[in-house]
Specification:
- The protein is α/β, with parallel strands linked by helices.
- It has twelve helices and eight strands.
- β6, α7 and β7 form a beta-alpha-beta unit.
- It starts with 7 loop residues before the first strand and ends with a helix.
Length: 296
């Protein structure tokens, strides 16, 4: 396996919608072109940011096929494929076409609130069933459970097909515990844009970024510099992006980044319920922050 797979900047790709809430594939194609040409290292398809939870299975399949075709092998693709019913996830793995897919991102089982033994068994079975490498996804703010550092390390040591974790707990002590004791091959990936710089300083291998939809060149540059240890050049980029990164999550995701992408002229600012557009005050503030960002 390529040891650099899923190192650097991954983009948690948004899904452009038309006003009728159908997928706008032409805007998606131009967005994919823009982010690849801006230097990102890989794409995450059908993650949280894509609003996959509001799509039908046929829409998700069509979207996956389109992203694979538009990417055309230029960067790896990580596919969001998880859930809170272990057998359903295994069944979905069996139905999925993995042509052009380099790995899956599988979220911790939400709503059920399993204990750590249940979490470990869930991911072990997914790893055994998956034909491609697995990145586990810890995001307690969305799932209602935390994957403990001890559970992550157990999975890293016992499951060769689990090659990393997207850590979005915001718990730096937990991140350090994982990085300090993980096997060499196992990647810790930042799941929080604003924590990417400090997490790379601690030993993380990059980020799965929402902000990189809107700022692919800047995020990629900051991450590349940080991974090279050029902290002095990476830090000003981090602080330049920070006000925008903080503001874009104030009313949820992808609410903020879709507003920014419309401000930039890439897509229309349409979401599917239960998500709604950014409030007018936030939209105006994002526009002002973007204008200020452009002047720097």
């Amino acid at each position: 396996m390529n040891k650099n797979l899923f190192t650097g900047t991954g983009v948690a790709l948004v899904t452009p919608f038309r006003k009728q809430e159908t997928i706008d594939f032409s805007k998606l194609e131009s967005l994919i072109e823009h982010i690849i040409k801006s230097g990102v290292d890989y794409i995450v398809a059908l993650g949280t940011t894509s609003e996959a939870a509001t799509m039908t299975e046929s829409e998700r399949s069509a979207l996956q096929d389109y992203i694979v075709e538009a990417t055309n092998g230029r960067v790896p693709i990580m596919l969001g494929l998880g859930g809170n019913n272990t057998q359903s996830v295994i069944d979905a793995l069996g139905r999925t076409n993995f042509e052009g897919i380099s790995g899956i991102l599988s979220v911790a089982p939400y709503y059920n609130k399993p204990n750590q033994r249940g979490i470990a068994q869930h991911f072990k079975q997914i790893a055994d069933a998956s034909p491609v490498p697995v990145i586990i996804y810890n995001v307690p703010g969305r799932t209602g459970i935390n994957i403990a550092a001890s559970t992550t390390l157990q999975l890293a040591q016992e499951c060769p097909n689990i090659i990393g974790i997207k850590e979005a707990s915001g718990n730096i002590a937990q991140v350090m515990e994982i990085i300090a004791h993980k096997p060499e091959h196992f990647k810790v990936i930042s799941g929080d844009d604003a924590l990417t710089y400090p997490m790379i300083a601690l030993g993380a291998s990059g980020v799965i970024s929402v902000a990189a939809n809107a700022f692919p060149a800047e995020m990629s540059q900051m991450v590349k510099l940080a991974l090279k240890g050029d902290w002095k050049k990476a830090l000003p980029i981090h602080y330049k992006l920070l006000p925008l990164m903080n503001a874009m999550f104030e009313e949820g995701n992808p609410t903020g980044v879709k507003a920014l992408l419309e401000i930039e002229g890439h897509i229309s600012n349409n979401l599917r319920l239960p998500l709604v557009k950014a409030s007018k005050p936030l939209y105006n503030r994002l526009a002002a922050l973007y204008e200020e960002f452009q002047k720097q």
